[in-house]
Specification:
By secondary structure, the protein is mostly helical. The protein contains 3 helices and no strands. It has helices at about 10-20, 25, 30-65. The longest helix has about 35 residues, at about 30-65. InterPro entries: P-loop_NTPase.
Length: about 70
């Protein structure tokens, strides 16, 4: 699996974890928030691609077993 990203060291992350809050909500403009969003987007893109690939594979194999309606 490729590297998804790197989180900058930010003491606010540890503080937020200790307090049970999340840094993206408390610090929406922080560099670490953008890093989290970038990683989340990469995961979503990967999952979407896997889903699409699975759908194409499934629909490709199942369509050959069906008769076409006329």
């Amino acid at each position: 699996m490729p590297l998804l990203g790197q989180l900058p060291l930010d003491p606010r992350v540890a503080q937020a974890c200790d307090e049970g809050t999340n840094i993206p909500t408390q610090e929406p403009d922080a560099a670490v928030t953008q890093a989290y969003k970038d990683i989340a987007n990469k995961i979503k893109e990967y999952c979407d691609a896997q889903s699409q690939e699975s759908h194409l594979t499934c629909s490709g194999s199942s369509s050959s077993n069906r008769s076409s309606p006329h």
